[in-house]
Amino acid sequence: MSTKKDKFSSKDNNYMRIAINLAKERKGLTGENPSVGCVIVKKDKIISIGQTGFNGRPHAEINAIENSDENLSGSKMYVTLEPCNHYGKTPPCTKSIINSGIKELFYSINDIDKKVKGKSFKILTKKNIKVWRGLLKKEAIDLYDSYIINRKYQLPFVTAKMAVSKNKLLYSEKVKKITNQSSDKLSHYLRYKNEAIMISSNTLNIDNPKLNCRLIGYEKFSPKRIILDKDLDIDLNTYIFKSAKKNNTIIFHYSSDHSKINILKKKGITLIKSRLNFKKRFNLKIILKKLFSLGIRNLLVEGGEKITKNMLKNRLINQFYLFESLKTLQKTKKHVIFTSNDILNRNYKVKTMISPKLVKDKITIYKR
Ligand SMILES: NC(=O)c1ccc[n+]([C@@H]2O[C@H](COP(=O)([O-])OP(=O)(O)OC[C@H]3O[C@@H](n4cnc5c(N)ncnc54)[C@H](OP(=O)(O)O)[C@@H]3O)[C@@H](O)[C@H]2O)c1
Q1: What percent of the chain has pLDDT over 70?
Q2: In 3D, which of 238, 213, 215 has the Cα closest to residue 227?
Q3: Whether the CB of 200 sits within 6 Å of ligand 1
Q4: Per residue in 245-257, pLDDT tens?
Q5: Is the peptide bond between 58 and the residue preceding it cis, with omega within 30 degrees of 0?
Q6: Which of 39, 43, 221, 364 is most buried, judging by how many CB atoms fall within 10 Å of its CB?
Q7: Cβ atoms of residues 175 and 189 within 8 Å
């Protein structure tokens, strides 16, 4: 076994890079399980690939083994995460790897899950399979950012998104759209990659958003809609109410308005009553814990100024997409100013910046 980078050849790097790309492609769509990519190589030729199935099963290693038309005896497997070694909802991947005749296994990082962590190495080496770990470790840690947060803190990985004008307004009555079409595509991509999207009833009632993914061919991956609505103010003429059905909408509320509760329930909306703190607001960490318990692992927050600031202050946002338009918006009676730049610059690192020359809006991705 080795963890040294120089023990890996450029071919090893390339195969693992392909595995990482396979995992990235499925990221956010594998439910409670991490998205894993897998490549099987024999005599320097890729003979099979696998990704974790939608909603987490089958595992990538099993898909790669079963996808292969060739005999796997003497082959090498490259997998982004330590294979599982216990009976859960599926049998252990280590068992299938041993039975397949694979002779060498490369994986990037240990699984953070205590049931698995580091044990596969021993199981597989005992069966005379050479095991190497640490290949493209840095890239894998980045790939598993959300899985690590999920496992460590039992919280969803939270991505927030905000669009602001050149003069830092996030709302002005006169303008409906702040950013351009390229930014819209990225916003819809974020909706595709997250299982749920959260906004306040205030934003819902003002903007009447659809909150769905409108990338052609990906509409079915639209996220669940989560509405923070302590007073049950949701307007029954909004798109979200009208398009609500069983299992696609959750409202967190405090009000006990029975007639409104009945109307919402009849629509199939899940209502979750949550306590308020001394500031008469929800404890957003408790809301996130509840969402985690309901199976939500990746949450997109398209909040306005208050929700966003509240979450940033409480360190509940893991990643932040700031879209800055070149437009200057007119200040009106009801305009809203984005005031969280300081918190972002203090507590977050800039991970990526997309230049306005390319997309007209400046897009900065901040990460904790
Ligand atoms: N440009 C963008 O990217 C973007 C995105 C979303 C919204 N917007 C705009 O933002 C404007 C609204 O701004 P905003 O700052 O009022 O919106 P917001 O932050 O989305 O929502 C504010 C509402 O949420 C409530 N709230 C905040 N934290 C809460 C908590 N912890 N628990 C329960 N309720 C909580 C507030 O209650 P309190 O009564 O206690 O304050 C208030 O009613 C809209 O006009 C919308 O168009 C822009």
Answers
A1: 97
A2: 238
A3: yes
A4: 999 999 999 999 9
A5: yes
A6: 39
A7: no
Q: Is 281 in the pocket of ligand 1 (CB under 6 A)?
A: yes
Strands 104-109 and 130-133: parallel
Residue 149 has pLDDT above 80, yes or no: yes
* Minimal-distance CA residue to ligand 1 atom 8: 304
CA 257/CA 182 separation, integer angstroms: 42
For ligand 1, atom 12, the nearest C-alpha belongs to: 304
From atom 5 of ligand 1, which residue's Cα is the shortest distance away? Answer: 304
Q: Is 310 in the pocket of ligand 1 (CB under 6 A)?
A: yes
Q: Is the CB of 302 under 6 A from ligand 1?
A: yes
pLDDT digits (tens, 9 = 90+) for 94-144: 999 999 999 999 999 999 988 888 899 999 999 999 999 999 999 999 999
Q: Which pLDDT belongs to residue 194?
A: 98
CA angle 355, 356, 362 (to 5 degrees): 80
302 a catalytic residue: no
Q: What are the C-alpha distances in Å from 72 to residues 1, 54, 67, 170? A: 22, 25, 11, 56
Residue 253: CB within 6 Å of ligand 1?
Answer: no
The pTM for the full model equals 0.95
pLDDT reported for residue 170: 95
Output the pLDDT for position 94: 95
Substitution candidate for ligand 1 out of 170, 282, 321, 323 with most atoms within 8 A of CB: 170
Mean pLDDT of the chain: 94
